Amino acid sequence: MRPGPQRTGVKARRNLTAYLFLAPFLILFTVFLLAPAFYGLWISLHVWNPLLDDHPFVGLQNYASLFTPGSLTSGDFWESMGNTGLFTVGSVPLLVLIPLGIAILLNRKVRGDSIFRAIFFAPYVLGVAVVSVLWGYLLDPQSGVVNAVLGLLGLPSDIPWTVDTPWTWISLIGVTVWWTLGLNTVILLAGLKGINQELYEAASIDGANSWRKFTNVTLPGLRPVMTFVTTVTILASANMFGQSFLLTKGGPGTETRTAIMYIADQGLAQNQMGAATAMSYLLFAFLAIVSVINFRVQRDNTK
Amino acid sequence: MNRRPMRWVAAIAILGLGATLSACSGGSASPSTDSVPADAEYDGPKVEISFWNGWTGGAAPVIVPQLIEKFNAEHDNIVVNNNALEWGDIATKMPLAIKAGKGPDIAVAHGDDVATYAAQGLLLKADEVIDALGYAEDDFPTGLMAAGSYGGDQYGVPWSVTPLGLYVNTSVLTEAGLDPANIPTDAESYLAALDQLKAAGVQGEWVDGYVFTGVFEFESLLWQFGGDLFNDDVSKATFNSDAGVKALSWMVDLVDRGYSPADVAADANINALISGDTAFNWNGIWQTTNEALQSVEWTAVPVPQIGDEKAVWSSSTHWMFPANKGQDPNKSAAAATFVKWMNDNSAGWAETGELPAQNTVREDPALLETYPALEPFLGELEYAHYETSAPGITAAAALITTAVSEAVQGKKSPKDALDDAATKADQILEQNKQQYGG
Fold it and tell me: Are A177 and A91 in contact (CB under 8 A)?
């Protein structure tokens, strides 16, 4: 059937209405995200000290420096990328698996589940500064509560939680998990509640035990939610800044300085906006690749 | 005093915005003249001048408005508007504001920032007005004028100094059988005291690798051993000299010999002094106003002479005259009158745990009658060293913290840590030279 002129008119009007509703967001998106992003790309081609009037164009020099061993930025940048990678690899599995476990427990209609939900979610409402200062006190190697308790239990009481590796990583990951697991729990719980109960009943009739039900009903049912949770968690972990900045001050030396922390140092403390934006784009490229892989891996292969 | 972290946190908040704004600022600052008019006392038409400072904490938010109110009452033709912002906000906002002609007519900055502002053409030269106001170099502690100069011109007028000192918990000394009236002054007596404290089960000094304590202790020791942070024209880092290695090794040795615990967290050492867990802490004069400290028996003395000569780290703050686009010379002249008056009336500034820069104010016996805790710090000013004055220097100096942290944590030997930091600092100095010139 060919669309008549009248139909095209209706469609066009419907499109126009949709665009009108989308416009406010589109404008904000363009002004505050798209435009700065392209402007950043432009900055990354210059030696851009925002305090100075002259911003010499240097082409891809800022990018080339990052791949030139011995340059001012390459060593520090890749160290910070490695630190970010380490933190992401260490924190993301915990931030997906622990909330998944908690969500499944909470989904069993336990008595007082809403109280538990509130307890698990509570730390998430705190700001990163509060969380870091709080744990800074608790984890202080000499006068912190954690070491004092360990000492009472007859365990080593001089663990340098916030001062020396590898303990700094354990602290950073532990604090981050404690802080943000509530959000993932709530999202996964919502996902669990969305799975059709009849599927579980059908599986029971087929003689499936709880593990088979988990692998064949729960996990496939959660797939879209899991994809979302892992993607968002990876991005959040890869953008970690505050915890390192406040809890370990990037130390010892620069061993817990994350990519964002180094980029912020370059761009804002050292006023090297060109180098900083080049690094941001490289980090962005990495995250884009990781996100694509993540979507591929979790794609529904059954359809 | 946590000004660098604060500057950072504030800076993060405008990530992105900063770049956008700077693009709008475009043209260079073009005041009608590049110097502050040389008037001893402003007698022109009535003007309102705006004053920016980072005095948002401690006693300052009370003292400064009082002083300004008094100044305004005494001067018919000048009205000073006080504007206290976080130091971090000043660092990010002021350059753009000055270029847009909306900056302050007078501001206070830390010594290591003055040259960075001056190199960007954001400041008026103050040489002539300093002469007109009757200031000479010996009106201030030795080396303080130089700490506010850049490229052969004076841009900063000294306001305050904040040296490091040795804080002592005297109860801890007494319990260990040491005489609190006889506090160590040199390497031998200091180590002997640490030894006796160790025998009594006390780790006498908690060495850390953070700014404000460990890093400033290292810099003091570096100067004591005859070294310096950078060479004369600030083109090369020299903190990795033999003197630097000696200084850092001495600190690491305190950890190795068990006089200090390993793995001390930031600020843990002053807290340990307050809780009676340690006897000594190298810390800034600002700790004299630490309220928690007042609950214990404490005293402060000049830092012991560990190396070959007396030396101590000190920071400083300076008045500067911004070169706003279209700066009104009358306002700058009025600002100079304000600066002179403030320095003359700066005795009360000691309340904030900083020393007034002007010698006549500090040497007035009334000062110590009101603030006896400051006494040990006054004597130190004869041999105090101030932060290096060069544009962009804070980026290079930040590497010293990395080196001290790495060495104290045993990640690298003192020499390797300092060498690595110096190599990188040299690259930053080179970059600074390319960008700021000079």
Answer: yes
Rounded distance, CA B1 to CA A264, Å? 21
Tell me whether the CATH fold assigned to B33-161+315-377 matches the one assigned to B163-314+391-436. Answer: yes
d(CA A121, CA A180): 8
Which CATH architecture best describes the domain B163-314+391-436? 3-Layer(aba) Sandwich (3.40)
Summarised one tens digit per residue, pLDDT across range B174-233 is: 999 999 999 999 999 999 999 999 999 999 999 999 998 999 999 999 999 999 999 999
Domains of chain A (ranges; CATH) run 63-297 (1.10.3720.10)
DSSP string, A31-93: IIIIHHHHHHHHHTTB---TTSS---B-TTHHHHHHTSTTSTTHHHHHHHHHHHHHHHHHHHH
Q: Does B428 touch chain A (CB under 8 A)?
A: yes
A217 alpha-carbon distance from chain centroid = 27
Tokens of residue A76, six digits: 């520090």
Q: How far apart are CA A25 and CA B162, in angstroms?
A: 51
Contact B397, B388 (CB under 8 A): yes
Optimal mutation site among B21, B22, B114, interface A, most CBs of chain A within 10 A:
B22
Q: What is B33-161+315-377's CATH superfamily?
A: Periplasmic binding protein-like II (3.40.190.10)
Contacts of B261 (CB under 8 A, 6+ apart): A141, A142, A158, B203, B206, B255
Contact B86, B54 (CB under 8 A): yes
What tokens were used for B91? 């660092």
pTM of the model: 0.88
Residue B238, φ and ψ in degrees, nearest 5 = -125, 10
The ipTM value here is 0.84
Based on DSSP, count helices (H) and strands (E) in chain A, helices before strands: 14, 0
Please tell me the distance from the alpha carbon of residue B258 to that of residue B255, in angstroms, as a whole number.
Answer: 5
**Residue A199 burial (C-beta neighbours within 10 Å; 0-12, 13-18, 19+):** middle
Contacts of B22 in chain A (CB under 8 A): 50-51
Residue B355 has pLDDT above 60, yes or no: yes
Nearest to residue A248, comparing CAs of A133, A162, A128?
A: A162
- With beta carbons less than 8 A apart as the criterion, state whether B42 and B333 touch: yes
Name every chain B residue with its beta carbon within 8 A of the beta carbon of A136.
Answer: 265
Closest-CA residue in chain A for B427? A72
Q: What whole-number distance in Å separates Cα of residue B397 and Cα of residue B432? A: 12
Extents of the domains making up chain B = 33-161+315-377, 163-314+391-436
Window 148-167 of A, Cβ < 8 Å to B = 158, 160, 162-164
